[in-house]
Amino acid sequence: MPDRFLTRGSLRRLPGVFFTGVTAAAVTAALGGVAVASTAGAAARPGAASPAAGTEMAQFGAASREFGVPASVLLAIGYNESRWTPHGAEPSADGGYGLMNLTVKTFTASSGRTGQPVRETLVKTHYTLTEAARALHRPASELKSDDAQNVRGAAAVLARYARQLNGGKLPSTVGGWYAAVAEFSGDTQEQTAELFANDVFATVRGGAALTTPGGQRMYLPAEPAVQLDRIPVARLGLKPTPKSSAPVDCPPNLPCQFIPAAYAEDPGGDPGNYGNYDIATRPRDLKIDSIVIHDTEASYADTIAEFQNPAAYVSANYVIQSSTGDITEMVRPQDVAWAVGDWYYNTHSISIEHEGYAAQGSLWYTQIMYENSATLVRYLAHRFHVPLNREDIVGHDNIAGPTTADTAVQHWDPGPFWDWQYYMSLLQGKSQQAELDSAGSASPDGQRVVVIDPDWATNEPPVTDCQTGTCTKLPRQPASFVYLHTQPGNGAPLLSDPALHPNGGPGTREDDDWGDKAPYGEEYVLAGQHGDWTGIWYGGTIGWFYNPPGAGQTARYTSSLVVTAKPGVKSVALYGSAFPAASAYPEVIPPEPNPALVYQLLPGQEYVTSGAVPDDYYYAVTYDSSMPDDHTVVPGKTLYYQIVYNHRLFYVKAADVVVKYLH
Questions:
Q1: Which residue, of 245, 257, 449, 586, has the fewest CB within 10 Å?
Q2: Which domains does the chain have, with CATH numbers?
Q3: 3-class SS of residue 539
Q4: What stretches in the chain show pLDDT beneath 70?
């Protein structure tokens, strides 16, 4: 198996799949003669073959020779920004394109507050895609999609920055490029610009190696002796880093820092146009009942800089770095981050971003990231009384949107390659996890609640990625879900979700098609058994998955609370939020719509519920509380239950259902 898809043990030993065992001479040859520093302690193992040069390595080498930028600096930026892997035709979360994340000023993204598409105009010192296109005399569209031109463009702007900072000359040492790399970030604050440069040069010093999904063998030998010249950073004229002694809301044994997300009024003076979170007093007035796991779809440093930009309309409470497990708190737990695109869920959850891209999974999700994330979640769960189960520790992919249209375009991170099995074992502890596993039997024995439980090490379903504009079969790798079919058999079509496939076409094996995937740890009600195939109630129909006895079994059985339609109710409406009825709002606060979705719960169907939830609405509409009743909670009198309906969690009104305990 290629080293991109390592076994569980080896993946968690290696943060970022770091470089070992390749001689500097081999890398120099692969880069077409570009010199690289020798690596202390990294001599080739006896009998080990040097990797063959690839097209992508040659592209970095050519750009290095053309513009005089050290190959190690270019490779380290590419590794940190993209793991040397294209992430599709769409921009990253901070408006960047390609291997080097060349940025644009304005792009379309979804608001973390409402889930609606918004045009973001991020304030940076400069935008590297525009500058690179001008330097190469090529259209920006070409640099977005052409890897070689993307790398050339990055090298061109880096060389220009370096000359401007160095009296018209290129630096004579690798460490002399530190300030140019800080400027490449485009960040307006010294702290985040230096964070970006520090991360790049940590990769230069530590080295890295991996095989891309396209089969490109990429490697950067470590240069541990590089000395950084930080002095020229002062010439960039960036905003100084404010001194802060504010404590972090983290366990004392974790590497945490506090960098506040933007909370600023629009420069035009509109108090209702601000970012990127809302002040609150949780849990005093809004219960925190879940913790949401995200991935950033951008680098660690870029994400922190984005959340500091008041035009981003997005934030999270915490951001965790892939290679080091370092944590940056950005929104206090008592405040409301604009994170999941569903305002009701935002107000009742804490969000944690993990550096990485959902489609690239194991390239980013490392042992140290899993471990530090789990330690943080255990701390927060204990503090706010959040149960450590899969109904309350959820992915962004488990969150519905407030409308059918919003649900269809909701994010799907951390994606199918996040190892929920391992992560939950870290959260629950080995002894507790063993107890939970033993509580769920391997065969029904009369139990009718199915717990999705494929073995991570052997569960490697075929997955296609279409994020780059063309659909590509991803190399087989461990995944945390099982496919659901319309009938018991691999030849039957995959389930079709009405929000994702409104014309009724079948489900797909695309990584972002969550409508035919049952994720690890979720509980569903047994709807049938046919040989080695198990049927569950899922999304208004029966979904069938392969579940043979023995080593290949992909589920276990347990008991749980479930809901079903009340006798005489022909169909139960589902909702993406649990907002109060219009009559609950005072006159000065406009009622928040809570439309029924395209989904419904029909008589005879049963779905697991995590229990009753409060119906409330947090009215927060200005930066300075200048509107009447601003920053107040509107309580309601409508009781809702949250249910595991398909891949996502939805709400039903208690008046429409019967709750029972299913053994």
A1: 245
A2: 8-236 (1.10.530), 256-564 (3.40.80.10)
A3: coil
A4: 1-54, 111-112, 242-244, 430-444, 468
